[in-house]
Design brief:
With about 220 residues, the chain is an alpha+beta fold. The protein has 2 domains: about 20-190, Electron Transport, Fmn-binding Protein, Chain A (Pnp Oxidase, Chain A, Roll), CATH 2.30.110.10; about 195-224, no CATH class. Helix content is about 15%, strand content about 35%. It is built from 5 helices and 11 strands. The protein has helices at about 30-35, 120-135, 140, 150, 215, and strands at about 25, 40-50, 50-60, 65-70, 80-95, 105-115, 155-160, 165-170, 190, 195, 220-224. The strands form 2 sheets. The chain has a 6-stranded antiparallel barrel. Strand 5 and strand 6 form a beta hairpin. The radius of gyration is 21 Å and the shape is globular. Bound molecules: flavin-adenine dinucleotide. Flavin-adenine dinucleotide binds near residues 21, 88, 106, 110 and 165.
Length: about 220
């Protein structure tokens, strides 16, 4: 199935319109795509029996849909249902002169949608492929793929990427030109980066089992 491309600008709806810290908002779909592509963990927010539940979970995507998966027994994966999905990258601490102006440099996305359970077997397999490849490119071709029993035990939910918002904060604290600049305190940012480590073989592996290139080459590279 060829996914329909979405408009290059994110829609301003009642749900996506920023009420606070509007200057950090972006309406560029390219910014949403970059945030989604930089991570593989989202927080899926659902309402179960009238109570909110937010669960961290792995995701994958195509141009049109964000996919999350899990056990058919998961209550958070019961579609159709209204959901809110967030993806967050922390780029550093913003350490201002005043505690009030402290903050975080970040990139974040919030997706509002109606989750649908993917029933079509081809879309389900393709969604699972995207999910696997999103976290570990090359792994779908390397590892054993799900069999019929495993597919039957797995729910795949699709959430449209249509209604989404983005916020990005970069740069220095905001009180450098205010009265607190006179305090003589240090202020600035403390960057945070995540770097992939060396692959650790399963102790049960035969010792001569090579690390696949698509896994080994990530060592020392930056995540996020
Ligand atoms: C790592 C991190 C730490 C943060 N810490 C704080 C904090 O300590 N205090 C604080 O006030 N704020 C913090 N923020 C910003 C926070 O996420 C909200 O944007 C902000 O608090 C405004 O919330 P609100 O309820 O007024 O949102 P509103 O502006 O009312 O939200 C309206 C709509 O804007 C969109 N939206 C809101 N926030 C975001 C977002 N972060 N990313 C993408 N879309 C968004 C959603 O679609 C939402 O439905 C932090 C953000 C990140 C990523």
């Amino acid at each position: 199935m060829t996914p329909q491309p979405l408009p290059s600008a994110l829609p301003l709806t009642d749900r996506t319109r920023h009420r606070r810290l509007r200057e950090q908002g972006s309406l560029a779909r390219a910014d949403l795509d970059a945030i989604l592509d930089a991570g593989f963990i989202c927080h899926l927010g659902v309402v179960i029996d009238g109570r909110p539940l937010v669960v961290p979970t792995v995701y994958g995507r195509d141009e049109r849909w964000l996919y999350v998966h899990g056990s058919v027994a998961s209550r958070s994966l019961a579609g159709p249902a209204p959901v809110c999905v967030t993806v967050t990258h922390v780029d550093g601490l913003v350490l201002a002169r005043s505690v009030f102006e402290h903050g975080v440099n970040y990139r974040s996305a919030v997706i509002h949608g109606e989750a649908r359970t993917v029933a079509d077997p081809d879309e389900k397999l393709e969604g699972l492929r995207r999910l696997t490849e999103h976290a570990t490119p090359g792994q779908w071709s390397y590892a054993r793929r799900p069999n019929r029993k495993e597919l039957a035990a797995t729910t795949l939910l699709a959430v449209s990427l249509e209604e989404a918002s983005v916020k990005i904060r970069t740069g220095a604290p905001d009180d450098g030109d205010g009265p607190d600049a006179e305090l003589g305190l240090w202020a600035g940012t403390l960057p945070l980066t995540q770097v992939w480590g060396a692959p650790v073989p399963d102790p049960l592996l035969p010792p001569d089992t090579p690390v696949p290139a698509h896994i080994g080459r990530r060592e020392g590279t930056r995540h996020g």
